[in-house]
Design brief:
heterodimer; B: Heat Shock Protein 90; 3 domains; 5-stranded mixed beta sheet
């Protein structure tokens, strides 16, 4: 395995996962904070936020293994004025910083709700800025397969998709943990899952359809492109076709399974903690699909020129 | 050589499968038994996989080899899957700590990456069996063996903490063996004829399976660059198949040994059952012994009480003895006896026992406990059940600061009428059992018997005295009647003689009449004296005897001498005292009437015989002695002997003509220790 090559997708995927999941969690928090109160709601999201912060940190660590000299990574900040890579790195650092402050605030004895809320939204904003900068890196005229609006759009879809599929796993694990500890806030987690699962499933299906649409648009775009674009298309539809098919299959199975789980949970009023295996499998399938997607993104690029 | 290696590997795994299968069939309560079916299946299928390798290495036609490859492509993932299932089952046998719920969340990303990487290599044109082999090892064998090894190690840790080192060591070997298996089978993979998965270099196929051409690329082929067959051969000098065979035997050896945990557990269970049984037997024996001892103690107490009653001990001392023994045997804090006073509605405390003291209540103490009073009204005995309100147990205790928590109450009945209550109380919450209540009832029965006995004895004593007085009165009456009848005849004779003018005969008849009146007078005086003596209980018997002798001497005009070598309390039973007095009276009457004595000496003393202490009464006179033909006197002596023997004594008469008469009477005393104990119990 080529470690250097595979750490780059690891960095991008993990960053997108953390941003997307944080957004979903913060929206759920905002929608329920009035009913449950800030203290209990913050208690319910504390551990998922901690896990997501760890993910963001690992993403930054993996990013260094992509470099030939990881210890010189700070030099990438020198060209903020002209380089999207530098801007991406800076935005990522700010994002991680706000994320860290958010976590510190949540873990404090008496978190102040206003500060927590603001820090959360700031972290999300910086996360999306990082995403944008990340996607702008690839808008290179010399890379026809990457140089289109579909690149940032696909990055955004991946962010939302991974967020939507990850949050049920985080909440369910946290629920089981709190129940085992006998914590009262487990009831809040259970209610959050009950209320959000259906909506998240719907979002997942919608995003899957958007992925299909983006793939279609990409194929159409490459089809009408130059020779390099044609080569990329050829790679995508011939050599990497099995992977493309595998990606879409995993995507729809994952989203479909989540919908099935949500419907069954609603109809039979099942205990939320019994859903762990199902939501884990859905998340795994979609994660594999998105990593495959990222692999294909890198694999079909054909450089124009020297 | 390779064939032999594969054959032995297969044999080892088949042995593992067979051992697990046979153990699983035996059944066991151990949770591990449920998972043996997966281990058995893994062993069998892995053995088959190794034998397929054996046949593959032997060569053959292409179709034959293709068929074997297809079989291997099916068998190998199935083997990995079975190992994965077994590993997962044994791993989660012991509940995980709560925080481990997050581990899947941590592993989801690396798992996703490995699956993705595997997918990228699968879709490249290469012999499919190689990626299947590689990814079966990475995705199924490796996690399965790690989980199995970890599961055995967790079992080892658990058994060690339980102190079962024999079982723990078996688990440790199996755990380590599986971890070694994870490394040598799960991590070391064959070289693949394609280059490393790279999205910069599509042409990864080193050897094109379709064209047979060799491409120019070389490179690593698995997840790491240093764990493949070639590396193992270079480092160890032995092929990986040899190490895998070694691993197979290691796993089989330790797991089969590890299955000894079932035998060890069975033995432990049997031993535990045996220990339990022995303990139960010992407990039963101890309980029987305790019950027997308790019964013996109770029986001894009851027999002792009974003996005191039959020996006519003072009833108060008997009651004190009863309450004291009842408290000790019941392990109660208080035992009390209350009797109805003259007012039938008023229950007065008679005596009680607390701690080490027993006390007779001098001034009246009215019992006010509602529960005790309620028991008086019913015929049933009661014992507390622990649910009673505290007010029910109020005033159940006297002389203690703490209130009663538990009580057992028995009504005393005589001739079907309530006469009192006998109860026990505890200050702690230890219930009185049904057996305790039964014993309490037995003690209550003894109390009633003692009271009845005392009543009867008092009546008997009164009856004896009354009878004696009646006898004396009858004798007086008969004697006087006879004398008066004789005198009436003599008056008529005197009248006749006066009319006849026979002065000499008249004088003789008058002399006879004077003698008769004299004798009658003496008899009456003696009877009156006897009557007085039978009333002399308040002064003490010895004093009464002394006074009687003195009066007798005055009346009979015979010198008397009284020697008292006994204390005033002769310790005779009441009836024996009566008989002693009668014997003395009879003897002195004989002296007065028949002995013609000048001196009579009476000795009262205590003497010891083999059977015990006796009161010795000796009456000696210096008269004419006992004449052989004096039938009346002989009849009197017989009566005296009967009196002595009726109270367990004996009487002897020693006499000779002209040598006086000695009457010796032996009457048994009551046991002094019992009397002393009953008297010294009274303390305050």
């Amino acid at each position: 395995m080529n470690i250097r090559e595979w750490t780059l997708p690891a960095y991008t995927i993990l960053t997108q996962l953390s941003v997307g999941a944080l957004l979903v969690i913060w929206v759920i928090r905002a929608l329920n904070i009035n009913e449950f109160g800030s203290e209990k709601t913050n208690q319910a999201v504390k551990i998922p936020v901690l896990i997501l912060f760890s993910t963001a940190i690992f993403a930054v660590i993996f990013a260094h293994f992509h470099l030939s000299k990881p210890y010189l990574s700070f030099l990438a900040l020198r060209n903020i004025g002209s380089s999207w890579l530098s801007r991406e790195l800076l935005a990522n650092l700010i994002y991680v910083t706000f994320f860290g402050l958010l976590l510190t605030s949540l873990l404090s004895i008496k978190p102040r709700n206003n500060i927590v809320s603001i820090l959360g939204w700031l972290a999300i904003l910086c996360g999306f800025i990082t995403e944008f900068c990340m996607s702008r890196i690839y808008l290179l005229p010399s890379q026809p397969a990457w140089d289109s609006l579909l690149t940032p759009i696909s990055f955004l879809i991946t962010t939302f998709l991974l967020g939507v599929l990850t949050v049920p796993v985080l909440f369910t694990m946290d629920l089981i943990f709190k129940k085992a500890q006998g914590q009262e806030s487990a009831a809040i987690n259970s209610q959050l899952i009950d209320r959000s699962l259906g909506k998240l499933a719907l979002l997942a299906v919608t995003l899957c359809l958007l992925v299909v649409a983006s793939v279609y648009l990409q194929i159409a775009s490459l089809f009408s492109g130059n020779a390099a674009a044609q080569t990329s298309l050829d790679l995508l539809l011939n050599i990497y076709q099995p992977l493309l098919i595998l990606r879409l299959v995993f995507l729809f199975i994952g989203a479909g399974l989540l919908s099935f789980v949500a419907v069954r949970h609603h109809q039979r009023n099942l205990a939320a903690e019994s859903l762990l295996l199902q939501v884990f499998i859905t998340c795994l399938l979609v994660l594999v699909a998105e990593i495959l997607g990222r692999f294909l993104f890198y694999a079909i690029h054909v450089r124009v020129g020297i | 050589m390779t064939m032999m290696i594969y054959f032995l590997s297969g044999l080892a795994f088949e042995g593992l499968g067979l051992a697990a299968f046979l153990q699983q069939r035996q059944g066991s309560d151990l949770p591990l038994n449920k998972h043996l079916k997966w281990l058995a299946a893994f062993g069998f299928v892995c053995g088959v996989t190794n034998w397929i390798d054996m046949f593959l290495s032997s060569g053959g036609t292409q179709e034959y080899l293709n068929a074997l490859n297809i079989l291997r492509m099916i068998a190998q993932p199935v083997t990995g899957l079975l190992l994965l299932i077994f590993g997962w089952e044994i791993l989660r046998e012991i509940p995980f700590p709560a925080w481990t719920i997050f581990i899947p969340g941590v592993l989801i990303v690396p798992i996703a990456y490995v699956i993705t990487y595997a997918a990228t290599t699968f879709v490249t044109p290469s012999p499919i069996e190689i990626p299947i082999d590689i990814w079966t090892r990475y995705l199924l064998y490796l996690p399965g063996a790690i989980m199995a090894g970890t599961g055995f190690l967790r079992q080892w840790n658990m058994q060690r903490k339980l102190g079962l080192s024999d079982v723990a060591n078996l688990m440790l070997g199996a755990g380590v063996a599986f971890l070694f298996e994870a490394f040598i089978v799960g991590l070391v993979v064959p070289a693949a004829p394609y280059g490393s998965a790279s999205y910069y270099n599509y042409n990864r196929v080193v050897f094109n399976a379709f064209t047979g051409e060799q491409a120019g690329l070389t490179g690593f082929f698995g997840l790491t660059s240093w764990l493949d067959y070639q590396k193992i051969l270079e480092v160890t000098g032995l092929p990986v198949s040899f190490w895998r065979m070694l691993s197979a035997f290691t796993v089989t050896f330790f797991v089969v040994r590890g299955l000894g945990v079932f035998e060890a557990t069975r033995n432990r269970q049997v031993k535990a059952l045996q220990d339990e049984r022995a303990q139960a037997q010992k407990a039963a024996l101890d309980a029987q012994t305790a019950a027997r001892e308790a019964a013996e103690n109770w029986t001894e107490a009851l027999v002792s009480i009974n003996r005191r009653i039959t020996e006519l001990e003072d009833v108060d001392s008997i009651l004190l003895y009863v309450v004291e023994n009842a408290r000790k045997l019941l392990r109660a804090d208080f035992v009390g006896l209350a009797l109805l006073s003259n007012d039938p509605s008023c229950l007065e405390l008679k005596c009680f026992s607390i701690e080490d003291k027993v006390k007779m209540v001098q001034s009246p103490v009215v019992v006010e406990s509602p529960w005790i009073l309620e028991t008086m009204q019913t015929k049933h005995s009661y014992r507390s059940s622990g649910d009673e309100s505290p007010s029910m147990l109020d005033n159940n205790l006297y002389g203690l600061a703490q209130p009663a928590r538990e009580a057992g109450i028995v009504r005393l009945e005589m001739d079907n009428r309530p006469i009192g209550v006998f109860w026990a109380a505890r200050t702690d919450e230890i219930l009185f059992t049904e057996t305790d209540l039964i014993w309490l009832e037995c003690m209550a029965d003894q109390v009633v018997i003692a009271l009845q006995h005392a009543l009867m004895t008092s009546q008997l004593q009164s009856l004896s005295i009354t009878e004696e007085r009646s006898r004396i009165a009858r004798e007086m009456h008969d004697g006087l009647a006879q004398v008066l009848g004789y005198l009436n005849l003599q008056v008529q004779t005197l009248d006749a003689l006066l009319k006849q003018g026979k002065q000499k005969d008249l004088a003789m008849e008058l002399e006879q009449m004077r003698n008769a009146i004299k004798i009658a007078n003496a008899d009456v005086r003696e009877n009156i004296l006897s009557l007085r003596t039978t009333l002399a209980n308040e002064k003490g018997l010895v004093s009464a005897i002394g006074e009687y002798l003195q009066e007798f001497g005055v009346q009979a005009k015979i010198a008397t001498h009284f020697t008292n070598e006994a204390e005033n309390n002769l310790r005779l039973s009441s009836i024996a005292e009566v008989q002693l007095v009668c014997i003395l009276q009879e003897a002195l009457a004989n002296v007065r009437k028949h002995a013609y004595a000048n001196l009579v000496s009476v000795l009262v003393t205590k003497k010891k015989r083999q059977e015990g202490e006796y009161i010795y009464l000796q009456i000696v006179d210096d008269g004419i002695g006992l004449l052989k033909y004096d039938s009346k006197r002989h009849f009197g002596l017989t009566t005296m002997k009967e009196r002595a023997s009726s109270v367990g004594g004996n009487l002897d008469v020693v006499s000779g003509e002209g040598k006086g008469t000695k009457v010796e009477c032996w009457l048994p005393c009551l046991d002094p220790d019992r009397i002393k104990n009953s008297q010294t119990i009274i303390t305050n």
